[in-house]
UniProtKB/TrEMBL annotation, chain A:
This is ABC transporter ATP-binding protein. PANTHER family: ABC TRANSPORTER G FAMILY MEMBER 20 ISOFORM X1 (PTHR43038:SF3), ATP-BINDING CASSETTE, SUB-FAMILY H, MEMBER 1 (PTHR43038). Transmembrane segments: none annotated. The keyword Zinc does not apply. It comes from the Bacteria. Residues 7-236 form the ABC transporter domain. The lineage of its organism: Bacteria, Pseudomonadati, Balneolota, Balneolia, Balneolales. Signal peptide: none annotated. InterPro entries: AAA+_ATPase (IPR003593), ABC_transporter-like_ATP-bd (IPR003439), P-loop_NTPase (IPR027417). Keywords: ATP-binding, Nucleotide-binding.
From TrEMBL, chain B:
Gene3D superfamilies: abc type-2 transporter like domain (3.40.1710.10). Belongs to the ABC-2 integral membrane protein family. It is a multi-pass membrane protein. Residues 132-371 form the ABC transmembrane type-2 domain. This is Transport permease protein. Keywords: Cell membrane, Membrane, Transmembrane, Transmembrane helix, Transport.
């Protein structure tokens, strides 16, 4: 297994009954890369992520994350990764600080470390003012920011962001991408799904998934050139023309 | 250990913040204890009586008056035909047909054997038992009163020790509370253990918060300890409060060791929590989990000797009691609290409960998955 690779997938497949939600996808993500995982709703992005982070058993194929096998070393993978799920999954009846403290504690950070890390994250995301507010009362954009900071709390090698900018305003989206860049600069590998095609331009490389399969994978510039398109959106429309699952 | 500390902190914060659940957890069990204990008593309400008095003497009238005076019997009608009484019983108008034979007065005053017939509607077995008990003691009392002077002296010598029995019958409900309260305490503790911890896990699965926990390197036993411990503590706390209410409110004697009882309750809570946890691993919604938990709970309670003594159940049902943790703990509770049983008398029951913990808890932990297949 290649030590340089953060993620490696080989014919990774997940079926629900006869239906292949993820159909033999293969790709590699290098360390420190920002990898955009694009696809329409229902293409299979979330299912693929869930297999990579050990929440869902693959039906067939191979995959490794941070050098660990997804079948046999899921718990080792979990020590190396952060995850922000598409569906908000922090505790809405706890405050911002209580959520951070809980996850910091679970990841084994010391009390001082948790405090320092919380302050750092809250200030960089401009969330200090709501430190002691229950999350349930916050607007969606702020919740998403918080979910991101919890995913980054323990300084993971790889962070999986499942539609982090889904439903948030343009300004918050912009902030998000600044955070993602910063994380990448500090050496974190970023695996990010989105269906905003303009965001693809921020990624080092992007894959485009259609109906469970990866139909294209290259740098944004490479894709535009190959499809002779002005932007990724056009590439995507070209590829998605034959899709069955579009909603 | 540190991880579990953070999980406990989180659970308790959530429990005490949940304004909907707090009263359910803390207030309802107490109300239930008080209400159930009073409502479930076997106090005889006024019984409607059809009187068939073939003697129509001063003595027979005196007996009837005495029965009415107790307030438990109400003569609704009378005739000279026993069949009238049976008919009225069939149409639910009366519960008792009282038949006083001819020559009742003569026989009673002369000391000859005589009998009064109580025809009781026994559809409701326990009420029938009470009517019989109350009726018999009134009539016994009455026969003592009307014995001629000479006989009475003999009689009283013979009856001196026995006369206490009717006194008990007149007020059996106090004893019944003593019998009920320990059992109801068991039910309350069981509900906390079986419903809350399992339901809590299913809820986290339903709203999706469990995903975020499942991608952390948290260990299964840590997660489960974090879920079981809070309700274990709350269960014991409620038992203590319940025992206080039993002691101060109902005057239930604590003949045996309360510490022993609490220690056993600690084991018992692990059994019911294990069952709740197991249910959570085989269900995906709170509704499903609730339904299964309720089903089990009702079976456990009905077959656990809370209302009907286990000894009066059919043999196969008695054998099944072996697998019923509620039955064991009710038995232990009554033995220790009311009869003062110690470790020696209850150790075999505690052994069974411990065995249950050792089976169900690992099975539930084993079944719990951080990932879906
Ligand atoms: N647990 C499941 N059971 C059955 N079908 C599922 C399940 N999870 C996802 N799917 C299906 O798999 C497909 C891919 O879903 P998903 O991975 O969530 O797509 P995306 O994240 O790209 O929007 C969808 O058609 C979805 O309905
Ligand atoms: Mg998705």
């Amino acid at each position: 297994m290649n030590e340089e690779l953060a993620i490696q997938a080989n014919d990774l497949t997940r079926k629900f009954g006869d239906f292949a939600a993820v159909d033999q996808i293969s790709f590699e993500v290098s360390q420190g890369e920002i990898f955009g995982f694009l696809g329409a709703n229902g293409a299979g992005k979330t299912t693929a992520i869930r297999m990579l982070i050990g929440l869902l058993a693959p039906t067939s194929g191979k995959a490794s994350v941070a050098g660990f096998d997804v079948y046999t070393q899921a718990e080792a993978i979990k020590r190396k990764i952060g995850y922000m799920s598409q569906k908000f999954s922090l505790y809405t009846d706890l405050t911002v600080w209580e959520n951070i403290r809980l996850y910091g504690g679970i990841y084994g950070l010391s009390e001082d470390n948790i405090k320092a890390k919380a302050e750092e994250l809250l200030s960089s995301l401009q969330l200090e003012s709501v430190r002691d507010k229950r999350i349930g009362s916050l607007p969606l954009g702020w919740k998403q920011k918080l979910a991101f900071s919890v995913a980054m709390l323990h300084e993971p090698d790889i962070v999986f962001l499942d539609e982090p900018t889904g439903g948030v305003d343009p300004i918050t989206r912009r902030q998000f991408w600044e955070q993602i860049y910063q994380a990448a600069e500090e050496g974190t590998t970023v695996f990010v799904t989105t269906h905003y095609m303009d965001e693809a331009e921020y990624c080092d490389r992007v894959s485009i998934m259609v109906d469970g399969k990866i139909e294209a994978l290259d740098t944004p510039a490479g894709l535009r050139q190959a499809y002779q398109a002005d932007d990724i959106e056009d590439v995507f429309i070209e590829l998605a023309r034959g899709a069955d699952r579009a909603e | 250990m540190r991880t579990i500390k953070f999980l406990l902190q989180k659970e308790f914060l959530q429990i005490f913040r949940n304004k909907g659940m707090l009263p359910i957890i803390f207030l309802m069990p107490m109300i239930q204890l008080v209400v159930l204990s009073f409502a479930a008593t076997f106090e005889l309400k006024e019984v409607d009586v059809h009187l068939v008095d073939f003697d129509r003497s001063a003595t027979s009238r005196a007996l009837v008056t005495k029965m009415q005076a107790t307030g438990y019997f109400n003569i609704q009608s009378h005739s000279q035909d026993v069949d009238d009484g049976i008919r009225m019983m069939r149409s639910n108008d009366i519960q008792l047909a009282l038949v006083i034979p001819q020559h009742f007065e003569r026989d009673v005053t002369s000391g000859s054997p005589t009998s009064v017939q109580l025809n009781i509607d026994a559809v409701d077995g326990s009420t029938a038992g009470l009517i019989q008990g109350y009726g018999r003691s009134i009539i016994q009392d009455f026969s003592v009163e009307v014995q001629p002077q000479i006989k009475q002296i003999q009689q009283q010598r013979r009856r001196a020790g026995i006369n206490i029995i009717p006194a008990n019958w007149y007020n059996p409900n106090l004893d019944y509370i003593k019998y009920m309260v320990p059992g109801i305490l068991v039910v309350l503790v069981s509900m906390i253990g079986m419903f809350l911890s399992g339901m809590n896990i299913v809820r986290e699965r339903e709203i999706g918060t469990i995903e975020q926990l499942n991608v952390t390197p948290i260990k299964r036993y840590q997660f489960i300890a974090g879920k079981l411990l809070p309700f274990w503590i709350i269960g014991l706390f409620e038992l203590v409060v319940g025992l206080l209410i039993a002691r101060l409110g109902f005057n239930i004697p604590f003949v045996g060791s309360v510490l022993l009882l609490l220690a056993i309750a600690g084991i018992y809570l692990l059994v019911v929590e294990g069952i709740g946890l197991f249910i959570s691993t085989i269900t995906s919604t709170q509704q499903q989990a609730m339904f299964i938990a309720w089903f089990l709970m009702v079976v456990f309670i009905l077959m656990g000797g809370l209302f009907t003594p286990i000894e009066s159940m059919p043999g196969w049902a008695q054998d099944l009691t072996l697998f019923n943790p509620v039955a064991h703990f009710i038995k232990i509770m009554r033995m220790v609290l009311l009869k003062g049983a110690g470790w020696a008398e209850v150790q075999h029951l505690v052994g069974i409960l411990t065995l249950m913990v050792v089976i169900i808890l690992p099975a539930a932990i084993f079944r719990y998955r951080k990932s879906t297949g």
